[in-house]
Design goal:
Blueprint lengths: L1 H30 L26 E2 L12 E11 L14 H4 L21 E4 L6 E2 L7 E6 L2 E3 L2 E5 L4 E5 L5 E6 L7 E4 L3 E7 L9 E4 L7 E7 L4 E3 L5 E8 L1 E9 L3 E11 L4 E9 L21
Parallel strand pairs: 2-18, 5-8, 7-13
Antiparallel strand pairs: 1-4, 2-15, 3-14, 3-16, 5-6, 8-11, 9-10, 9-12, 12-13, 16-17
């Protein structure tokens, strides 16, 4: 009888153990689900780590995470064209009396300045680094259609930052973005539009995207939307500066519309509370061939 009772007790103990294990598994399964049961979306917890006192609020792409950083610094420098290039000829419009009257229209494909400076080069990080500061309120940018050309020719913009599309010409224009990762903005802009039609980008892009006018096919510009503040366009003299970078080594992408990716991993060491000064040299030969994926360009002419 004792052996039978012992066997029963052992069986009950085993059942209790299995039930406890099952309840634990069920609890773990429920804690791993955010929406409902049976195939619901998996819950991915976000981890928050305190940053150092001087770092303020910092964010990392992919989640509201913060990390300790040694400090912040800047990079500044110039893009310098080595050698000579053939300057693209000015544009002679063949349609629209307003635009024809503005002929010749400057060609912004390759713009150089003093001492070999190369304008309209995008310098940017492909993704937000650990320790990225939470950006302050973003001021609106303006993007004009003036003299039957887009101004500025190249524009860096952060996601959710408002761009006001203007039209300083006395003729109808059309602003048509050609993104890879989000719906296009395709909007007619009335003559002499001074208030601006609002444009925002919801997602960052991997490289600059083209902006065209479906009415005037020679009109072309480039926008680079990113989900962080670490991007810039070089000025006419080739100068640029990016501030508030987490200290450490970063790899920048250098991109120009004529050359594509000039350098996809340009390394810069950012000092704490200091500025790294660089001179990025671009061989003239690179401007005659395109490296990388070309931005989409869709043109639907509305004028015969």
């Amino acid at each position: 009888m004792r052996s039978v009772k012992a066997q029963v007790n052992s069986t009950n103990l085993l059942r209790c153990t299995l039930m406890a294990a099952g309840l634990t598994t069920l609890a773990l399964s429920l804690s791993g689900c955010q929406k409902g049961l049976g195939g619901g979306a998996r819950y991915e917890p976000q981890v928050t780590i305190l940053a150092d006192a001087d770092a303020e609020d910092v964010a990392v792409a992919g989640g509201a995470s913060t990390v300790e950083v040694a400090g912040y610094g800047s990079v500044k420098g110039r893009i310098v064209l080595e050698g000579s290039v053939t300057t693209p000829p000015a544009i002679t419009p063949t349609k629209d009396d307003v635009c024809i009257a503005k002929s010749p229209i400057p060609n912004d494909r390759i713009v150089t300045g003093a001492n070999g400076g190369l304008a309209n080069v995008f310098i940017y990080l492909g993704k937000a680094p650990a320790g990225t500061k939470k950006p302050a309120a973003k001021e609106s940018l303006t993007f004009d259609q003036q003299g039957c050309r887009f101004l500025p020719h190249c524009l860096f913009v952060q996601t959710e930052q408002q761009v006001l599309v203007l039209n300083s010409d006395n003729t109808l224009h059309n602003t048509h973005t050609n993104p890879q990762r989000q719906p296009a903005f395709n909007q007619g802009v009335q003559p002499n539009e001074k208030n601006g039609v609002p444009l925002t980008y919801a997602r960052g892009e991997k490289q600059p995207i083209s902006v065209t006018c479906d009415i005037h096919p020679w009109m072309l510009a480039y926008h680079l939307p990113l989900d962080h503040p670490y991007g810039v366009v070089s000025a006419v003299d080739g100068s640029f500066e990016i501030a508030d970078l987490p200290a450490g080594t970063h790899e920048f992408t250098i991109w120009h519309e004529a050359a594509g990716v000039i350098n996809g991993g340009y390394k810069v060491e950012i000092p704490v509370d200091g500025t790294a000064e660089v001179e990025i040299k671009v061989p003239a030969a690179s401007m005659s061939s395109f490296n990388g994926e070309r931005p989409k360009r869709i043109i639907l002419s509305m004028i015969p």
